[in-house]
Structure formats: structure tokens, C-alpha cells
From TrEMBL:
GO cellular component, one term: cytoplasm
Species for this entry: Alcaligenes pakistanensis
Name by which UniProt lists this protein: Histidine ammonia-lyase
One function term, GO molecular function aspect: histidine ammonia-lyase activity
Similarity comment: Belongs to the PAL/histidase family.
């Protein structure tokens, strides 16, 4: 039962609020002043219609058909036709978590009062979200410019009682789902359909999903990398604060501190501090602050972009009330172009791919007895047992797949709408592919954690640091020591689940 409540302050959503909406259903509310702002905006639209002035999207056609004037008696039908004709998405529906974000951000954007939509329409969408009705929003069919037209149209279908929706886990006709939730469908007035389907909320929701996944992967990869250092009897000298202060990169300084604190007090490290035979560790151990620090800086940069976009007004045209004696204005622009989101998603794709690439290299290091000093393939009686030999192959396959998926989507563009929309962002795909990449990297990190935990066990009775021992214990509660060959896929899935649900990172929550 939903008990948590969040007030959607238009233009002032926080990342913590967005993450909470993504994680679980919550009750959302709007401040009273948002109702007045929306009604004032819709009154301007009504005035335009009364006075007979032509305005794009209010009493004209759309896109290339913008020169077509629509009679007043057809304006409601115009909006319904817009939604029906634009509902052309294909593929699997977005997740419930992403759907919640889409609706929440669309509500918050419209509630800023620049979209010419009645407050009743927006509060009905809010009721749909709070009731747990999930619109069927196909994941494919948007090029990330002129808004996420197709997927947002599918969202709007539910609002008007058309299409499919989910109620209590079951897909059914949207009108039936609304009836079960006690909600009356909306009849859209002038401008309202366009306000609902113009915007970057689908691209942004998918990118936020990728951002939250990337943050989770970062924390778990830091833990895995530190555990691997101890498993391979690596040096903690490369994490010395003086090295990183000289370079000055903030993410690198932060990452180095995490490794220092994670390894502090390790008996394993102390056992070889005075007799290290290795002059320098391989890069996958030694250069972790440099790589993971750069990833952290990339995450921070794209987090800022996506939070800005989550609070933005991105539909078109926009309605501006007159000030200082100036008349009200409806201005057509291009805030629906999702280039900032596309760039952010491409940046996160690089981050996810590199987290996995670095973890895969440490897996390769740990199973190689000539480098790690551990038993071959991390198993007793190697030869009779293959150990983690093929688990590394899986990690390599996933890392390679991520390389292809990391190719920037934002450099592509195909003109649409008879060349009216002649440059598009491809932000929706850029953001959508992040979930697949994150799932790949979560599995790679899980494999590294299994390998590193195995290496730590081989050093018994010496213990790793207290912090890392907590990580080790969490792994061993889920997966036993690998003493002989067994069905290994379930072990990978078990630890992958610990990665994705933040169970492991919670053992060092005070660090991050």
C-alpha cells in the first residue's frame, strides 16, 4: 500500500524525489498555486479561440499541416485525432518504474502553467498515476524531437479512455482500468493533446533510469575493485591522496579516497607490505581512481543535465501571459528537441561500458595464476575443475556487447514529417539502450565479486579490511565458496541481484 507522499513542486523536483518515484509507487500531490497557473494559461487559449486568432496547435493542423486552419467546432476532434494518429509505438512497454517517471515529469512540466492546458486534465493524469494505473507505453517509435510523440500519445490514450493500461498487474482496455480505479476519462480541449504529447519526458525518464543504474554500478564496481586488490595482493600505494591531489580531478580524488578507506586495516595487505615482489600492479588495479574517477565526473555532469530537463517545460507552442501592458503570446519554439538528453544518455553509455570493461580486466587478472598468485581459475584441483574459466568468457562477451551499444546515438539523424522535422536527436534510443547495457555490466561486476571473494577466501586465515569483510560476508550469505565445479549461472544471478538492489553497496553506505 502506498504511504509515502511527495509534493511535485513544478520546476523544483529533486533527484532524490525522482529516484523515489522510480523505485516504488508513491502518492504525488501538486501545490495549490500550480492549479491557478494552469487555469490562467488555459484561459489564454480560450481567449484566442473566442477572438478567432490563428495559433499553431490551437486552431491549426500540426507539423507540415500547420497552415491548415481548423474550424472551432472541430477543435476537440482535432485533439483526439492527434492522439489516435500519433499512437504508433511498437515494442515492449516501458517498465512500470519508467512509466511513473514519465507521468510525474509530464505533470510537473504542465503544472508550471505555460502549456495552455486545464488543471482538471493534469489532475486527472495525477489521479491515474496515484491509483496505480499504468498506461501501455511502447518503448520504440520516438526519434527524440518534436517531443516523444508516439510514446506520450500512448500515455495520453489512457487519459482519454483508449488503448491499453495495467491495473493491479493485469493489462486490460484503458477504459476498464480507469473504471476500476474510479476515474472518468477526459475529453481534450484545444491545445491539450499537443501539450500532453510534445515534450522530452520519455527520453528523460529512460535516461534517468540509466543514470540510477549507473550510480548503482559505480558503487558496486568500487567495492569489487577494492576486493580484487586484496584478493590479488595488490598495493594500496596508488591510492595515496598526494598522487591525486597533484592531478586535481575531483572524481579521481573522490574515488581514491573510497579505495583507501575500503582497504584500510586489511590483514592481507599488511602481510605483504614489506616484501612486495611486484614493482607495479596492472592498470586494472592501479589506475582504478583515474578510470572510476573520470566515470564519477561523467555521472555528475549528466546528472545535472537530466535534473534540469526533468524540471523543464518542453512542449510547443508555449503560452506566455502578457506583462506590463503587453498582450498574451503563444510562441512556437523547439524545447521538444532532446539533444541535451541524447548527449547525457551517450555519456552514461560510455560510463556503463567502461565500468564493465575495467571489471572484466580484473576478472581476467584474478583467474590468471601467473599474475594473481592465486590457484588457476580460482578453484582447487584445477584441471579436474574448470572453476571461473568460462565465467570470464561470459564477462568478456558482455563487455564486448557493451562496446557496440556504447556507439553514440546522438550523431545520427533521419529527417521526418516531410522534412519539417529535419534534424532529430535520437535521444529515446540513446536512453533506452542504457538498461540493456546496465544489465550486462551488473553481470560483469557480479562475476568479479565472485572471483574476488574466492581469492579472499584463499588467503584465510588472513582477513581483508572490516569494510570489505562485510562485502565478503554478504556475498557468502548468497553464494558458498566454490570448492569444486557446480552449476555456476545461479551464483552469478544471485550476486547480480545483490548488485542491482544495492544490498552490497549498503554495507558501505556511509562511504558513498
Amino acid at each position: 500500500m502506498m504511504s509515502k507522499s511527495i509534493e511535485l513542486s513544478p520546476g523544483a523536483l529533486t533527484l532524490a524525489q525522482l529516484r523515489q518515484i522510480w523505485q516504488e509507487p508513491v502518492v504525488l500531490t501538486l501545490p495549490p498555486e500550480a492549479i491557478g497557473a494552469m487555469d490562467a494559461s488555459s484561459a489564454i487559449v480560450a481567449k484566442i479561440i473566442r477572438e478567432g486568432n490563428p495559433a499553431y496547435g490551437i486552431n491549426t493542423g500540426f507539423g507540415k499541416l500547420a497552415q491548415q486552419r481548423i474550424p472551432d467546432h472541430d477543435l476537440e476532434q482535432l485533439q483526439k485525432n492527434l492522439i489516435l494518429s500519433h499512437s504508433v509505438g511498437v515494442g515492449e512497454p516501458v517498465s512500470d518504474a519508467v512509466a511513473r517517471l514519465i507521468m510525474a515529469m509530464k505533470i510537473a512540466s504542465l503544472a508550471r502553467g505555460f502549456s495552455g492546458i486545464r488543471s482538471h486534465v493534469v489532475t486527472t493524469l495525477l489521479d491515474i498515476l496515484n491509483a496505480g494505473v499504468v498506461p501501455f507505453i511502447p518503448s520504440k517509435g520516438s526519434v527524440g524531437a518534436s517531443g516523444d510523440l508516439a510514446p506520450l500519445s500512448h500515455m495520453t490514450l489512457t487519459l482519454i479512455g483508449e488503448g491499453q493500461a495495467k491495473w493491479q498487474g493485469e493489462w486490460m482496455p484503458a477504459q476498464q482500468a480507469l473504471a476500476k480505479a474510479g476515474i472518468t476519462p477526459i475529453v481534450l480541449a484545444a491545445k491539450e493533446g499537443l501539450a500532453l504529447i510534445n515534450g522530452t519526458q520519455v527520453s528523460t525518464a529512460l535516461a534517468l533510469n540509466g543514470l540510477f543504474r549507473t550510480q548503482t554500478l559505480f558503487r558496486n564496481a568500487i567495492l569489487a575493485g577494492a576486493l580484487s586488490v586484496d584478493a590479488a595482493k595488490g598495493s594500496d600505494a596508488p591510492f595515496d591522496a598526494r598522487i591525486h591531489e597533484l592531478r586535481g580531478q575531483p572524481g579521481q580524488i573522490y574515488a581514491a579516497r573510497l579505495y583507501r578507506e575500503l582497504l584500510a586495516g586489511s590483514q592481507i595487505r599488511q602481510s605483504h607490505r614489506d616484501n612486495d615482489n611486484k614493482v607495479q600492479d596492472p592498470y586494472s588495479l592501479r589506475c582504478q581512481p583515474q578510470v572510476m574517477g573520470a566515470i564519477q565526473d561523467l555521472i555528475t555532469q549528466n546528472e545535472r543535465t537530466l535534473l534540469t530537463e526533468a524540471n523543464a517545460v518542453t512542449d510547443n507552442p508555449l503560452v506566455f501571459p502578457g506583462q506590463n501592458g503587453e498582450p498574451d503570446q503563444v510562441i512556437s519554439g523547439g524545447n521538444f528537441h532532446a539533444e541535451p538528453v541524447a548527449f547525457a544518455a551517450d555519456g552514461l553509455a560510455l560510463a556503463i561500458a567502461e565500468i564493465g570493461a575495467l571489471a572484466e580486466r580484473r576478472v581476467a587478472l584474478l583467474i590468471d595464476a601467473s599474475i594473481s598468485g592465486l590457484p588457476p581459475f580460482l578453484v582447487p584441483s584445477a584441471g579436474l575443475n574448470s572453476g571461473f574459466m568460462i565465467a570470464h568468457v561470459t564477462a568478456a562477451a558482455l563487455a564486448s556487447e557493451n562496446k557496440s551499444l556504447a556507439h553514440p546515438a546522438s550523431v545520427d539523424s533521419l529527417p521526418t514529417s516531410a522534412n519539417q522535422e529535419d534534424h532529430v536527436s535520437m535521444a529515446t534510443f540513446a536512453a533506452r539502450r542504457l538498461e540493456d547495457m546496465a544489465q550486462n555490466t551488473a553481470a560483469i561486476v557480479a562475476i568479479e565479486l565472485l572471483c574476488a571473494a574466492q581469492g579472499i577466501d584463499f588467503h584465510a586465515p588472513l582477513l581483508t579490511s572490516e569494510r570489505l569483510q562485510n562485502v565478503q560476508d554478504a556475498i557468502r550469505q548468497a553464494v558458498p565458496f566454490y570448492d569444486q565445479d557446480r552449476y555456476l549461472a545461479p551464483d552469478i544471478e544471485a550476486v547480480k541481484a545483490l548488485v542491482l538492489d544495492e544490498s552490497l553497496a549498503a554495507t558501505a553506505a556511509d562511504l558513498f
